[in-house]
Amino acid sequence: MKKIITTSEYFEIINSPGIYIIKISANWCNPCKVLTSNINDLPEELRNLFFEVDADEAEEDLIDLLNVRNIPTLILYKNGVEHKRSTGVLSVEDLVKFIND
Known about the structure:
Layout: E1 2-4, H1 7-14, E2 19-25, H2 30-40, H3 44-47, E3 50-54, H4 60-66, E4 73-78, E5 81-87, H5 92-100
Parallel strand pairs: 1-3, 2-3
Antiparallel strand pairs: 2-4, 4-5
C-alpha cells in the first residue's frame, strides 16, 4: 500500500479517475493491523486500490480534512468523490462487498 503523508498527495490520488480506497490507521492500533492483514489477503487487483494514511505520521490538516475520528477507517472514492466509508475491521469477504457494492 502506498503511503499518503501530505494533503497534496491525497488530492493527487483522489483527483485521478477511477476507484481508490484510503485506509486511515496507526502502527500501534491492533484492529488496524488485522485490517491490513485482511487487505493483504485480497486479490492483487483489489489490493492495488488501497492507499494508507498513518494518523500519527500524516499532516494534521489531512486527518481533519478526512473528518476521521476513529481508526481504522476506510474511505472509498469514485472519480474524486467520496462514495462511502467504513470504520472498524472488515473481513476479506466484507472488504470485497465494500469495494463492489
